[in-house]
Backbone:
């Protein structure tokens, strides 16, 4: 068959081990006890361990929640059949709080001595799922944005008339006591106008300049530190290798500050907030690949995001706090999207992380 001839031609031209090492798919060879015999470089990267650390180690011991993977391996070995599982959720022992999604292909092969071997293909499904989430979020935000703009237009017109009428009435009132009521009307009209403007977000294009993202983080840290209780712990964990790049300073300060203030409101007075930066090499944002991406995390140890709003968290007017407006996250996401990035989050009780991902345009 044609594809067999192609495989043979490649095998005669290149060393097979070099081809396997060059794959961007994790390749793991297991014995019949599911212990690691071999892994290629991609698999080592996905498992955050070297081949020397992995060899002879039971694969199940690498994960905190390997029951589903064990069942798949046992079934494939028992029935001597190939299996595929998409979007299998696993957590590495050395990073138990970080959920990873994998596509897994299992094939049974015979070794030279007659024993069964298991060839496991491990594919990181996170970029695909991230792209799907971003597409869904983008569609939701666009629909919400159109509705919000129409609503804002309908609200601002009568607010302007209300404020103008209050000003005219104030000039006709005979004493100061009565003018206090018109002052309240004017003040509330101004407050509602500002709220509507917040709903509209930042309509102008980013004004970018070369800046170090840590300068933005430090500014946010200083503001947060001034607002926080003396018992609230705020930690900075910066990656010094993050280079300077093009950012809109004012917009990103607003976006990150919104996340930081949400974290501050989520923790009690003895809570812990972490501002963290990292560089992601060869990552994807949407359907576009970037050589370098900066990841800015705002982490807190609060109660987490309620399950009832997890899927709609970034939409306007969605909030778990009775006193909240539900605009902070929507505005932050709008800002970051306008700057070519996205905000993602992971949340469970005791650990919530909002991550701002932005391309590093040098």
Residues:
């Amino acid at each position: 068959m044609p594809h067999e001839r192609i495989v043979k031609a490649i095998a005669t031209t290149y060393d097979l081990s070099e081809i396997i090492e060059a794959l961007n798919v994790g390749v793991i060879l297991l014995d019949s006890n599911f212990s690691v015999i071999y892994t290629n470089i991609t698999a080592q990267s996905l498992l955050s361990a070297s081949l020397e650390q992995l060899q002879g180690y039971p694969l199940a011991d690498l994960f905190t929640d390997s029951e589903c993977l064990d069942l798949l391996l046992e079934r494939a070995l028992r029935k001597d059949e190939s299996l595929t599982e998409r979007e299998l959720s696993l957590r590495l022992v050395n990073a138990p709080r970080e959920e990873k999604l994998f596509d897994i292909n299992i094939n049974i092969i015979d070794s030279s001595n007659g024993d069964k071997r298991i060839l496991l293909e491990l594919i990181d499904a996170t970029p695909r799922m991230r792209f799907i989430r971003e597409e869904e979020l983008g569609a939701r935000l666009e629909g919400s944005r159109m509705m919000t703009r129409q609503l804002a237009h309908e609200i601002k017109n009568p607010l302007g008339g209300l404020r103008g009428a209050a000003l005219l009435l104030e000039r006709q009132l005979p004493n100061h006591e009565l003018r206090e009521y018109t002052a309240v009307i004017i003040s509330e009209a101004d407050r509602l106008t500002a709220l509507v403007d917040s709903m509209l977000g930042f309509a102008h294009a980013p004004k970018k300049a070369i800046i170090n993202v840590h300068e933005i983080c430090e500014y946010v840290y200083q503001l947060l530190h001034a607002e926080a209780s003396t018992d609230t712990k705020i930690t900075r964990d910066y990656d010094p290798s993050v280079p300077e790049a093009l950012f809109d300073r004012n917009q990103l300060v607003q976006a990150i500050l919104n996340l930081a203030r949400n974290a501050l409101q989520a923790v009690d007075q003895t809570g812990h907030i972490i501002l963290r930066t990292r560089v992601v090499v060869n990552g994807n944002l949407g359907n576009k690949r970037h050589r370098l991406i900066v990841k800015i995390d705002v982490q807190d140890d609060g109660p987490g995001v309620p399950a009832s709003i997890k899927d709609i968290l970034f939409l306007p007017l969605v909030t778990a706090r009775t006193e909240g407006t539900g605009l902070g996250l929507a505005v932050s996401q709008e800002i970051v999207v306008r700057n070519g990035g996205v905000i993602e989050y992971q949340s469970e009780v005791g650990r919530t992380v909002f991550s701002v991902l932005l391309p590093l345009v040098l």
